[in-house]
Write a structure and sequence with these properties.
The complex is a heterodimer of chains A (about 400) and B (about 250). Chain A is mostly helical and about 400 residues long. Chain B has a six-stranded mixed β-sheet with strand order 6-7-8-3-9-10, with helices on both faces. A four-stranded antiparallel β-sheet of chain B has the order 2-1-4-5, covered by helices on one side. The chains are: A mainly alpha (about 400), B alpha/beta (about 250). Chains A and B meet through helix 6, helix 7, helix 8 and helix 9 of A and helix 2, helix 3, helix 4, helix 5 and helix 6 of B.
């Protein structure tokens, strides 16, 4: 197959995926539609932040600010120009995506420039502050609706475009890492002094990463604004930034597929838990106890047992199964105590479960689920084949 | 005209004069040694040449024009590459990728082409990887090209740093203690390798080294620093018998 055949094939595949998702969601209720859209936007946000945090190693925790800049840029443009433009919906949306991207990348340039001299914690503080400044400035602008928010006249349910953006973001990151041009970004993450000795302009690499990352967040913001039809500063608080950072860290800093998958999971999990029915307090306590035991034993296993990977996985599965068996027994025992007989509304537990999941994962796998690996078939095969034999002469 | 010329290069950190009016010149094709006891200012000299520090006074000339005040990445572009005393590899990257980073200055296609994964960028990546593989063969690391560079043994890491520096295709290669931590056999191999790099690649080499036997057998000319001052200069045979050098290393005769 020639290059262009492969290229057109993959583009067609992406389009087919996006449109079938669109068709699937159209037949669902509006809650599911919202979930599909927001999940797509979070994938874009997480993967674009991964470009800054994971690949280039700049710890930015103000990604919601770029999201917001994109949303407000297009929000005000829509208010001023939509009726005059006479464009069909999709064309207008794509135009707005570019507008949001440009607005946000200008903001990214603004944050990228001070990041030339700042590293690690200091950069984190600057980006955090920047995020809050943007939010509070918008909150106090009458022209932008202030704290009441801004209503956007044309609303579009372009689920396909949301996921197309997510796929575009993933492919851009992937392309960067597949070519020699991505290596300077990784090199800056690893060692700035050595990179500059290799002729890499560290400053321009960092600024480029901020530009690309914030452009995608801005485009996502534009789609959010047109999907919701309403934006307010309360939608872009620090929490949003932190959730995006959590997605990147949990997926494995630097891993594109890790960021994308954990974005879907971390977004879906708390929403799915709204459906939980009432639970007995005794069950919850039993789950808690079993969780602590399981985590402790798995951690011990991982620290002290360096056997065959398959055997190790077997032991872990054993521990998990043991915990699952233990939960109902322990729950029944605990139910004999009066204070534990009360029942708790299941949906109230969603944030607790969210937090516990994060703690457990960070305890067991601090490098993130995917670490720096990418999900690929070669990787799956390697996992099943066991350890790879090291060539001779390697310490 | 000499390739590199230090003309009374001086740097002061507060009251401390780390390098004081050091003057020497390298001609094209030289194998030049920079030696001296610990704290003599050798690595500081390298940092001055590569733009990490800017000299307080004096000049550093490359092919007759001053390079003072250029940032390190610009100096790499002008044709000076270096290795580091405390190895600074890109640890999470593979051995091959480390060397490909060194090819950054030879990128012809833009970032846009790479982001869109267009044929020019793909071709360039292939070419740079092939070039990197050739360099790995020179330092005989081609059999571990896909290993994470942090997993290499110490001697291999040092050799990889040399290959990475060579990937920028410099006119002048600065090696900061390339033989540190190597066993005698590895040192012997390194000796032949550096000579080969000079003879076959036509690079000029300036190296810092503590191992006297290694320096004396490899370098054609040597500069000796002590407390930031230049105390001797000349071919190894002269340096070996220079009373000042002996005094600096072993102390004065009583």
């Amino acid at each position: 197959m020639t290059f262009w055949q492969t290229r057109l094939g993959s583009i067609a595949l992406a389009l087919v995926f996006c449109f079938s998702l669109d068709q699937f969601a159209l037949h669902q209720n509006s809650f599911i539609q919202r979930l599909v859209v927001l999940a797509g936007l979070y994938v874009t946000l997480a993967v674009s932040l991964n470009l800054i945090n994971g690949i280039t190693g700049q710890f930015s925790i103000g990604h919601a600010a770029f999201y917001q800049v994109g949303a407000y840029t297009t929000g005000s443009l829509a208010g001023a120009f939509f009726n005059k433009a006479h464009l069909p919906g999709p064309a207008w949306l794509i135009l707005m995506m570019f507008a949001g991207a440009i607005g946000a990348s200008l903001a990214g340039l603004l944050v990228g420039l001070p990041s030339l001299r700042l590293k690690g914690d200091y950069l984190a503080i600057v980006t955090l502050g920047f995020g809050e400044i943007i939010r509070i400035v918008v909150q106090n602008q009458k022209a932008l609706g202030g704290a009441y928010g801004l209503t956007i006249a044309p609303r579009f349910q372009a689920i396909w475009l949301v996921w197309l953006l997510a796929i575009l973001c993933i492919s851009v990151s992937r392309n960067l890492l597949k070519t020699a041009h991505g290596l300077p970004f990784l090199a800056v993450r690893e060692d700035e002094v050595a990179s500059s000795a290799m002729g890499v302009n560290v400053t321009s690499v960092k600024v480029t990463a901020f530009l690309i990352g914030s452009a995608f967040a801005g485009a996502a913001g534009a789609l959010l604004a047109h999907f919701e039809g309403f934006i307010s500063p309360a939608m872009f608080t620090m929490d949003v930034s932190f959730i995006i950072v959590t997605m990147v860290v949990l997926g494995g800093t630097g891993s594109i597929t890790g960021a994308a998958l954990s974005a879907v999971l971390l977004f879906y999990l708390p929403e799915k838990m709204r459906d939980l029915s009432d639970l007995h307090l005794s069950t919850i306590v039993a789950v808690g106890i079993c969780l602590v035991i399981a985590v402790a034993s798995i951690k011990r296993l991982m620290d002290h047992f360096h056997g065959e990977p398959r055997k190790r996985a077997g032991f872990m599965a054993g521990v998990v199964m043991g915990a699952v068996v233990l939960v109902p027994i322990l729950g029944a025992l605990l139910n004999n105590f009066d204070p534990l007989k009360t029942s708790v509304e299941g949906s109230k537990l969603r944030l607790v479960v969210f937090a516990v999941t994060l703690i457990v994962l960070m305890l067991l796998r601090p490098q993130g689920v995917f670490a720096h690996h990418e999900f690929s078939w070669a990787w799956v095969r390697k996992l099943f084949r066991g350890t790879v034999k090291a060539p001779e002469g390697v310490a | 005209m000499s390739l590199l010329q230090l003309d009374k290069a001086t740097i002061k950190f507060g009251g401390l004069i780390a390098v004081n009016e050091v003057t020497f010149q390298l001609n094209k094709g030289d194998l030049f040694g920079l030696i001296g006891p610990n704290g003599a200012g050798k690595t500081t000299c390298f940092n001055l040449i590569t733009g990490v520090y800017r000299p307080t006074s004096g000049e550093i000339l490359l092919n007759g024009s001053s390079i003072c005040g250029n940032p390190p990445n610009q100096i790499a572009r002008l044709g000076i590459a270096r290795t580091f005393q405390n190895i600074r590899l890109f640890k999470a990257l593979s051995v091959l990728e480390n060397v490909v980073v060194g090819g950054f200055l030879r990128h012809k296609t833009g970032l846009g082409s790479a982001l869109a994964f267009l044929p020019p960028a793909i071709e360039e990546t292939k070419r740079l990887r092939a070039d990197a593989m050739d360099l790995l063969r020179i330092v005989s690391l081609d059999h571990v090209a896909d290993i994470r560079s942090a997993d290499l043994s110490y001697g291999m890491q040092r050799r990889l740093e040399i290959a990475r520096a060579m990937a920028t295709q410099p006119q002048l290669l600065l090696l900061d203690e390339p033989a540190a931590g190597m066993n005698p056999q590895e040192k012997e191999e390194l000796n032949g390798m550096v000579k080969k790099i000079r003879d076959e690649q036509g690079m000029t080499v300036l190296l810092i080294e503590h191992d006297m036997r290694f320096v004396m057998s490899l370098c054609e000319r040597i500069v000796v620093l002590d407390h930031g001052e230049e105390i001797a200069q000349g071919p190894p045979s002269e340096i070996r018998n220079d009373p000042k050098v002996i005094a600096a290393y072993l102390g004065e005769a009583v």
